[in-house]
Write a structure and sequence with these properties.
Blueprint (H helix, E strand, L loop, with lengths): L1 H30 L40
């Protein structure tokens, strides 16, 4: 009684391992190893460009101070 239970559990464990190996192979073949690569060139760059136009009085001197304390 104990021997068939052990054999069944070992077969189930083997099937789970083979399923995991198959999943890794499937996703590697479909998307390649660069599917989750942070250095991939296809990723959208995180660059922000901001333009602002301010009305100033042309008779007074203007001093522009930029606070760039973003983390």
């Amino acid at each position: 009684m104990k021997r068939p239970l052990v054999i069944t559990l070992l077969v189930l464990a083997l099937l789970l391992v083979l399923t995991g190996i198959g999943a890794v192979l499937f996703f590697t073949v479909n998307w390649g190893l660069s599917a989750n690569n942070p250095f991939d060139a296809r990723n959208v760059p995180s660059v922000l460009e901001e333009n602002k136009t301010l009305k100033v009085d042309v008779e007074k001197p203007v001093t522009l101070k930029i606070n760039d304390a973003a983390g």
